[in-house]
């Protein structure tokens, strides 16, 4: 094995293709050896386009390539935990997209497999690597806003998802697939654990989504172990932009992360003001996905622990499970990891 990390990418849809591109072209310490996708034609096509040597129709086939040392998992959510178990058993380090799983037993089984194999697992909470969130965290750690008191986060996707996205039931509902990013931020930026959540949800503008157990928007109130409070809002079809914002209010100040602007400039004309709005996660978080890939590879090559751990994935998932329970029961629910 050389000085580069041999990487295989599983699931090369929208997200996985970006990971494969980054690993192949923008992470000098990585050697993107192969991609695999249950749609073998797609794997072949992506491999050809990105100039990656090998393509496979399954994880098992890809793992037979001995030079692969680490696997990036970017399949739909439901397949994350089984893929982690298979990759771990083969002795590979893993960067897995969020969520770690769509239920706690699957997540615990995946973590057990990782521990048993002695491999390392990083969860793709890439906002830790976003320059704005990273700067916010540095100031929080430096004590600039004192003790965190209130956490507020907004996550709104832009386009109306096709109904098939709900029907297939392979991605977790809103709390698992989208709000999970904010649940992770809620722990990370507040440096505390959420012990109770109370969710309100709606399907009012698209009632047909309810039959698939999903919702169009949700707000979740949070109660922290040390007494702080919070609120997270998620909405799948904002239409106007991809809108991600967070505020951490402390005893000595507040930090606001995110604006609607893609570039920090305001464009004025005789017709008034215009702004270029962020329209997609792949553009808003492009730097974060790349920094995440670079840092993961750097750490794996040097036997360092991952920056965002499997335990972080489990704890954010615990919040999503409690939020779903609260949505169904209509009452506040405690966060547990069992
Ligand atoms: N971190 C982020 O900001 C972010 C953004 C988007 C998506 N994601 C996550 O990335 C994952 C993929 O999302 P996407 O939008 O790329 O989905 P997608 O539907 O575009 O792509 C999924 C790909 O996985 C393949 N696939 C399905 N089942 C498979 C299996 N069992 N084994 C191998 N390949 C399989 C499909 O053929 C497809 O090519 C999801 O878990 C999603 O939650 C994360």
Secondary-structure map:
Layout (H helix, E strand, L loop, with lengths): L4 E6 L3 H13 L3 E7 L3 H11 L3 E3 L2 H5 L6 E4 L6 H10 L3 E4 L7 H14 L3 E3 L7 H11 L6 E9 L6 H5 L6 H4 L1 H10 L5 E9 L14 E8 L4 E7 L7 E8 L3 E4 L9 E3 L2 E3 L6 H4 L1 H16 L8 H20 L3 E2 L4
Parallel strand pairs: 1-2, 1-4, 2-3, 4-5, 5-6, 7-10
Antiparallel strand pairs: 7-11, 8-9, 8-15, 9-10, 11-12, 13-14
Helix pairs in contact: 1-11, 4-5, 5-12, 9-12
Q: How would you describe what is shown here?
A:
This protein has 338 residues and is of the alpha/beta class. The protein is 36% helix and 24% strand. The chain has twelve helices and 15 strands. A seven-stranded mixed beta sheet has the order 12-11-7-10-9-8-15. β9 (217-224) and β10 (229-235) form a beta hairpin. The radius of gyration is 20 Å and the shape is globular. The relative contact order is 0.16. The mean pLDDT is 94. The chain binds nicotinamide-adenine-dinucleotide (NAD). The site of nicotinamide-adenine-dinucleotide has 24 residues, from α1.
């Amino acid at each position: 094995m050389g000085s580069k990390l041999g990487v295989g990418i599983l699931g090369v849809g929208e997200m996985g293709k970006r990971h494969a591109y980054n690993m192949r072209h923008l992470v000098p310490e990585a050697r993107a050896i192969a991609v695999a996708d249950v749609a073998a034609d797609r794997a072949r096509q992506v491999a050809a386009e990105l100039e990656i040597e090998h393509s496979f129709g399954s994880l098992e086939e890809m793992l037979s390539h001995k030079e692969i040392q680490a696997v990036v998992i970017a399949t739909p959510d439901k397949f994350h935990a089984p893929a982690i178990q298979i990759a771990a058993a083969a002795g590979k380090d893993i960067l897995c997209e969020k969520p770690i799983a769509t239920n706690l037993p699957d997540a615990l089984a995946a973590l057990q497999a990782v521990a048993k194999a002695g491999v390392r697992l990083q969860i793709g909470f890439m906002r830790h690597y976003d320059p704005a969130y990273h700067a916010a965290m540095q100031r929080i750690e430096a004590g600039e806003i004192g003790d965190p008191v209130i956490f507020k986060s907004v996550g709104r996707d832009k386009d109306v998802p096709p109904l098939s996205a709900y029907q297939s039931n392979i991605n977790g509902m809103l709390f698992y697939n989208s709000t999970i990013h904010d649940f992770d931020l809620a722990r990370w930026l507040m440096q505390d654990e959420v012990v109770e959540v109370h969710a309100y949800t709606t399907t009012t503008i698209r009632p047909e989504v309810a039959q698939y157990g999903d919702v169009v928007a949700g707000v979740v109130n949070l109660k922290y172990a040390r007494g702080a409070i919070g609120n997270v809002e998620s909405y799948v079809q904002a239409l106007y932009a991809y809108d991600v914002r967070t505020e951490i209010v402390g005893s000595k100040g507040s930090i606001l992360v995110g604006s609607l602007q893609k570039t920090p400039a305001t464009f004025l004309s005789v017709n008034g003001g215009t702004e270029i709005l962020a329209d997609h996660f792949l553009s808003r978080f492009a730097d974060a996905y790349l920094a995440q890939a670079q840092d993961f590879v750097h750490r794996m090559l040097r036997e360092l622990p991952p920056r965002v751990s499997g335990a972080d994935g489990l704890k954010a998932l615990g919040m999503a499970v409690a939020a779903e329970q609260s949505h169904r029961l209509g009452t506040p629910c405690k966060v547990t990891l069992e």
